[in-house]
Amino acid sequence: EADIYQTPRYLVIGTGKKITLECSQTMGHDKMYWYQQDPGMELHLIHYSYGVNSTEKGDLSSESTVSRIRTEHFPLTLESARPSHTSQYLCASSDPGGTNTEAFFGQGTRLTVV
Amino acid sequence: DAKTTQPPSMDCAEGRAANLPCNHSTISGNEYVYWYRQIHSQGPQYIIHGLKNNETNEMASLIITEDRKSSTLILPHATLRDTAVYYCIVRSPMTTDSWGKLQFGAGTQVVVTP
Q1: To the nearest whole angstrom, how far is the Cα of B15 from the nearest Cα of chain A?
Q2: Band of the pLDDT at A13, cuts 50, 70, 90?
């Protein structure tokens, strides 16, 4: 049973607002990820983190930012939301090493900017 | 990480076995084959993974060819709840030099019909 949670599940917000999407995991995983996915399209990695105080940009450029102050928490922030940010955002985490590692995903946040 | 090729879609009758192919001709020796699925509007769910031996768990079986250039995910008795997009991913172990990020392609849309 995966213990990774995203809030809110759905968010409709006006242009120009600042928003933070929350992601928390209780598995003690060092590695965490944010993916962006438009309806019917592929998942694209936008941010990842090796551990506390570590954040890196993913393969898809994003105007969002992330922080990793605590192991269990990996929030994503948009300083000024725009309609082009409308998408589903998925958070994931995984064990730090070894070969038998799988990634656990949250249920996602579906963001609509109007 | 090596690229994978999957058919865009396939149908399967309920109760029958679903065989999902994946080509990964450029896979390297230390890369594992992972399968995930994504049910509509949810986060991806881990199914199974393997290196070169066939693997089986409560969800599915994974058959990897001897040359490791292709694999098949088998859902032994498909149910309506198995309707989802199935992703085949080739991934190196997470070591200090490789953080083992998951790169999702387009996947195969599987529709299980009554």
Answers
A1: 26
A2: very high
What is the average pLDDT across B28-47?
90
Q: Using the 8-state DSSP alphabet, how is residue B76 labeled?
A: S
- Strands A76-78 and A19-25 turn out to be antiparallel
Query: How far is the C-alpha of B6 from the C-alpha of B107, rounded, in Å?
Result: 6
Q: Please tell me whether the peptide bond between A39 and the residue prior to it is cis, using omega within 30 degrees of 0.
A: no
User: Are residues B88 and B6 in contact, defined by beta-carbon separation less than 8 angstroms?
Assistant: yes
* pLDDT at B16 > cutoff 70: yes
Are B94 and A98 a contacting pair at CB < 8 A? yes
Q: Which residues of B touch A110 (CB under 8 A)?
A: 41
B64: which residues sit within 8 A by CB, 6+ positions away? B33, B50, B51, B52, B53, B54, B70, B71
Helix (H, G, I), strand (E, B) or coil at A84: helix
**pLDDT at residue B46 greater than cutoff 70:** yes
The residues near B44 (Cβ < 8 Å, ≥ 6 apart) are A43, A90, A92, A103, A105, B36, B37, B38, B87, B104
| Triad A60, A61, A67: Cα angle to 5° | 100
A43 to chain B, closest Cα gap in Å: 6
Residue A18 vs residues A64, A65, A82, A90, A95: alpha-carbon distances, Å: 10, 12, 10, 19, 31
